[in-house]
Design brief:
- It is a single chain.
- The chain is mainly beta.
- It folds into four domains: 1-186, Lipocalin; 334-405 and 617-663, no CATH class; 414-604, Jelly Rolls (Sandwich), CATH 2.60.120; 678-732, no CATH class.
- Helix content is 5%, strand content 36%.
- The chain has three helices and 49 strands.
- β33 and β34 (478-482) form a beta hairpin.
- It is globular.
- The protein starts with 17 loop residues before the first strand and ends with a helix.
Length: 733
């Protein structure tokens, strides 16, 4: 729909398309236009909101990212910058304050408009892009907005308006709430009706103070007492850094979630809605952060959230019911593109969480465009310097329930064998005080065998270290396996105290190891009580090196993955020397001297992802929008699915409103018998590996259906690895 030709424009800023129950589409238009429009699901413009004088109603002189609020009979909109009386740019509103207006849902005619009072010294009302979409509840409209006061500090004002008349019931302009360094920007405002009692609601907003530990809040709770007509600060709490606020309220457990940048150490925080106490936090690998990607939703099981990450992942966060105060996290990547890690998602892309008839969590979202890569900083080295004309923005549909975790294979495994502790008066007179090759042990949990103790901390260590047959082909026999669980914090480990401490003039600790990847921290220790208080080492994921009592220090020695290596730590002559396959510390640490009291190994699951192990999941559906806007707005207002099942968005370039029809019903059938069953796996595999000749042979030489439609699971006219997940999803359904 060419809305520009009809006098409207695409969505402004980061606002979203809104629907009514009949599937009609409402949106706020961009700066210089700044209107409210309605279209039907057939692509007909029904109205542009009008002032009393019959003019198109223009909300103000600044663009904003608020969305229309659709009620039973009215549609509401909030302006930014200086408003206009009757929406007429020829009649600026007094005091340059923003306007709130209500329109007839059927005709778009103005019903009422209200100018919001302010205090402070901000001459243009609210700055562009700083408003939050109003909240409509029980006949009242709640508006949360900023006021700039002095020296760049901001405060909140809260307004309650009668939704029928526009009359301001009360506001906080006489005593604005909160003080913080960064304005709340745009984003989501969470509303919790009757949270603090009958008629006493909670509103939650997210900002940024510049520090995650300065006791100046990032997350604020506003206590709105509709009985008394007051709004007061209930609490504020340190949390994650944001460019735009993302807050989600969970009524099932009275938690408030935020998904944020990783600047303060985590990308998801869970707060107690009543007190602001941080219940838990986490930062999985594979998603980078959520600071710019405006998609987050309460999970369907009411036990956490789903959020989009700027590096091409979808993250899930869940309360660990077995370990209160712990937030479990996982990440999923949905693409087979070799340049995917920074392509899918990125900023200025919205998303939506749906549930299909099978109860699966379905995400509708979009991608960035990466056509015009900088030759000096190529986006995709594997494909050359660019440009990459095929990397225009996509609309994607993702099934989280059939997706494989990108973190599942990320934390290890690490294999340990042939452990020795030796001591003596000199290097020529060493005697063995401890040795372990695991050959007499039973496969399964290591703790409880041979004096080994569990040294694991959930959630990464929610299962103990195991004894397994060497799976690497290295001929090591039985080995210790450390395979932590996801980038969720904690560690998986095992420790064994020595029968007697090693205190000789020379002490040696030696073992063999195989690292499947180097994106996690492997800790070793010989301190009293495995306390890491004396002599310890870490193989650090950030550097891929091993150091003694430090991270990538001057004694660091590089570690290599995918091979068995011998690690030796030698104490004596006043120094501690690390040696991995003959490469030794350039500048050794000082020997205290250290007493060797135990042998401890811990694998800490961290956020890093080894590209070789990243699991890529094919989307259920992909649509190439053709939009090319490098690291900028691509898909506006969506993509979001309406009640009719169509997916809607605005093309940033043409400004057209686009609707995508659902594809044809699933019809792939590799064995041509009319249904998709497990019997189709063999002919599909033949097609995938050997093409049409192999598929024909797998069907007995004379298949009764056509090759391409029979095997093209995702209808992209290509039979490749992207069809596998779609087939798996259909079989599971």
């Amino acid at each position: 729909l060419d809305v520009v030709a009809l006098g409207a424009a695409r969505v402004g800023g980061r606002g979203a398309i809104t629907f009514d129950s009949a599937g009609n589409i409402y949106w706020r238009t961009t700066a210089g236009n700044n209107k409210l429009a309605k279209a039907d699901s057939s692509g007909n413009l029904l109205w542009i909101a009008k002032g009393v004088g019959g003019n198109d109603y223009v909300f103000g002189n600044a663009w904003n990212s608020t969305s229309p609020v659709v009620g039973q009979d009215r549609v509401y909109g909030l302006g930014a910058g200086a408003g206009y009386l009757d929406g007429n740019s020829a009649t600026p509103a007094p005091s340059n304050h923003p306007m709130v207006a209500a329109f007839d849902k059927s005709t778009g005619a103005l019903i009422w408009e209200t100018q919001l009072p302010e205090d402070g010294i901000y001459p243009q009302g609210w700055a562009a892009d700083e408003g939050h979409t109003p909240l409509l509840y029980n006949g009242k409209l709640y508006v949360v907005g900023p006021v700039e006061t002095v020296n760049g500090f901001f405060s909140f004002n809260v307004y309650q308006l009668d939704a029928a008349t526009g009359a301001i019931d009360w506001d906080t302009t006489g005593a604005p709430l909160f003080w913080f360094v960064s304005g709340p920007k745009n984003g989501t405002t969470a509303f919790a009706p009757d949270l603090f009692g009958a008629g006493v609601h909670g509103i939650f907003v997210n900002s940024s103070s510049g520090s995650g530990s300065d006791t100046v809040g990032e997350v604020f709770a506003i206590r709105v007492d509709s009985n008394l007509g007051t709004a007061t600060e209930e609490w504020q709490a340190d949390g994650g850094h944001v460019a735009r606020g993302h807050t989600i309220f969970n009524p099932a457990n009275n938690r408030v979630y935020t998904h944020t940048f990783a600047d303060y150490g985590n990308t998801c925080y869970s707060f107690d809605a009543f007190t602001g106490a941080v219940y838990g936090a986490n930062a999985p690998g594979g998603i980078n952060n959520h600071g710019f990607y405006d998609f987050g939703a309460l999970a369907w099981d009411d036990n956490g959230i789903v959020a989009g990450g700027s590096s091409g992942g979808i993250a899930t966060y869940a309360e660990d019911t077995m370990n209160p105060g712990t937030i479990l996290a996982d990440a999923f990547k949905f693409t087979d593109d070799e340049c995917a890690p920074n392509w899918f998602g990125e900023f200025r892309v919205l998303g939506q969480l749906l549930q299909d008839e099978n109860g699966h969590s379905i995400v509708v979202s979009g991608t960035n465009s990466r056509v015009n890569a900088d030759p000096l900083d190529p986006f995709c080295p594997e494909a050359g310097e660019g440009p990459y004309p095929e990397k225009t923005a996509r609309v994607v549909v993702l099934d989280l329930d059939t997706a494989l975790s990108s973190l599942a294979a990320e934390d290890g495994p690490a294999y340990i064998d042939d452990i020795e502790v030796l001591e003596g008066p000199d290097m020529m007179s060493l005697t063995t005080v401890f040795s372990e090759d695991f050959e007499t042990y039973t496969n399964g949990p290591l703790p409880g065998q041979g004096g080994w103790l569990d040294d694991s901390v959930a959630p990464s260590g929610d299962t103990p270290a195991d004894v397994v047959d060497d799976p690497t082909g290295g001929g090591q026999g039985k080995v210790m396996e450390l395979d932590a669980n996801g980038g969720n914090g904690g560690w998986q480990g095992a420790t064994i105290p020595l029968a007697a401490p090693a205190t000789g003039a020379y002490r040696v600790v030696r073992w063999r190891q195989y690292r499947d990847d180097l994106k996690d921290n492997l800790w070793t220790d010989s301190s009293p009580n495995a306390s890491f208080s004396a002599s310890w080492q870490v193989q650090w994921d950030a550097s891929g090196t091993m150091s003694h009592t430090g991270f990538n220090d001057s004694d660091a020695v590089p570690v290599t993955k995918d091979i068995w290596q011998t690690v030796t730590i030698t104490y004596g002559d006043g120094i501690v020397v690390l040696d991995i396959d003959g490469t030794m510390s350039a500048v050794p640490d000082i020997d205290a001297p250290y007493t060797i009291t135990n042998v401890t190994f811990e694998l800490e699951g961290t956020a890093g992802i080894d590209p070789e192990h990243a699991v890529l999941n094919a989307p259920l559906a992909v649509y190439d929008t053709g939009v090319n806007a490098q690291n900028a707005f691509t898909i506006r207002g969506g993509p979001v699915a309406g009640p009719d099942g169509k997916i809607y968005y605005f093309d940033n370039g043409t400004q057209e409103l686009v609707a995508l029809e659902p594809g044809s019903t699933f019809s792939a059938d590799p064995d041509c018998d009319g249904t998709l069953t497990l019997a189709d796996i063999a002919p599909f595999s033949a097609a995938l590996v050997g093409g049409e000749p192999a598929w024909i042979a797998a069907n007995g030489g004379s298949p009764s259906c056509a090759y391409l439609p029979a095997n093209d699971m995702n209808n992209d006219s290509v039979i490749d690895g992207t069809d596998i997940q779609v087939m798996v999803s259909q079989l599971l359904n």
